[in-house]
Amino acid sequence: MKIPCRVRGLAVLAACLALPNAILAQTAALPATPVVDSGITAWMLVSTTLVLLMVPGLAIFYGGLVRTKNVLGTMMHSFSAMAVVGVIWAVVGYALSFGPNVLGGFIGWNKSYFMLRGLDESILPAGVPEYVFAMFQGKFAIITPALIAGAVAERVSFKGWIAFIALWVLFVYAPLCHWVWASDGYFFNLGAKGAIDFAGGTVVHISSGISGLVLALFLGRRWGYPKLATSPNNLTMVLLGAGLLWVGWFGFNAGSAIASNLDTARALTVTQVAAATGALTWMVIEGFIHGRATSLGLASGILAGLVAITPAAGVVGVPGAIALGVIAAIGCYGMISVKNKFGYDDSLDAFGVHGTGGIIGAIGLVFFIRDSWWADAGTKIAGWGILNQLKVQLTAVGATIAFAAVMTLLLGYLVEKTVGFRLNEIDEKSGMDHVLHGERGYGLNNLN
After folding, report:
1. Cα–chain center distance at 93
2. pTM of the prediction?
C-alpha cells in the first residue's frame, strides 16, 4: 500500500526530533571525562604560589629569632628544603604519597607517577590538572621539614641537615601523607568518615613538632643554654615573617578544598578568624601576666591560631575558629612556659607552637564541628557521632606522634653516625654563617 507523502513526512520529522535524545542517551552511558575547570585551576595555581611563599616567610621568621651569627645558616634550612624536597617530591615523593597502597598500605606507589611521567593527560574529577595538585601538595612537603629546623636552630651542620630532611621526607612525611590524604590510606578510611585533617594538622604540624622535639632532646642544648643570652637579633624580621605566613596560610587552608566554592570561602574565613583570635588572646595573656604585649608574643599568637585551625578549616564555623584560637594561644603559651621550666632547648618553639597547636586543633575540632557538616556526613550531631569521631582523631594523633618520634630518633641517629649532625662546640660558638657558609648575614664583624 502506498503511504501518503504527508504521513511519510511526519514520520521523518518524528525521527529527526527523537535523534538528539537518542544521542544524549548514548552519551550518558559513556564514562564522563573530566575537563579542565579554568576557575578552580586558577585558584589552585594561586594557592600553590601562596603556600610556596610561606617557605621564605618561615625563613625570615626563624632568621629574625636567632643570633646575628646564625641568621643565614638558619634561613638556609628553609631555602635548602625548597631545593632538596622539591626534587625528591617530583621524582618519587608524589608517587609514594598518593599512589595506590603497597606494603600493606604502609606507603603508596604508582610507577606512572615516577618523575610525574603519567600526569600529562591526567585531570582530576574537580577539573584540575593533576600537575597542579601534585605541585600544590609538593609545597606542603617542602615546608614541613623546614618547620623542624626551629627546634634545633643554631647547632646543626648543614650536610647533616640536608641528609636528615631527605630521609625524613621519604620515611616519615610520605607515609603519613599517604595514610591521611590518599583515598586508600589508613586514617582516610578510619571510622565512619575518616580522620579529619583538612590541611595538615597531623601530616604537617604534629609530625614536624614532635620530630623537632625528639631531635632537640637527641642533639642536646645549645652551648651555654639557658644561661647564655640567645635573644632574637631582629624582631622586625619576625613580624614580617609572621605576616607572610599569615598571607600564605590562606592558600594552605582554603586551597586544600581543591575547589572554588562555599567550602573554600569557609576555610578562608575561619583561617582569618582563628589567626586574629590567637594573636589577640596572646596579647591579653601577656598584658595580664607581664603588664605589656610584645611583638614576639603577637607573632606567636598568630601562628598558634593558624596551626590549630589547619586541620579544622573544613569542618568548623566562626564560633569554632574563635574557640580554637583561644585554646591554642593558651595551650601554646603554657607549653613554652613548661619548656623554660624543664630546660630542654626547643630553640624557636617548633614543638611549643606547631606540635602543641596541631594536637589541640586535631582533637579539639571534634567539639566545634558545624551542624551542616554533621548533616552532610549523615551523622547525628550529638552522642555517638561525636564520641566516635573523637576516637578516630585520638587514634590518628596518637599514631602520628608515635611514628614521627620513633622514625625521627632512628634517622637522627643514622645521620649523626654517618655524616654528622651536631656542630662541635668551637664551630657553634663561631656561628653557622661563617663556619658553614663563609658569609655574614649583615656584612658586619664581631656581632653575636
Report:
1. 15
2. 0.91
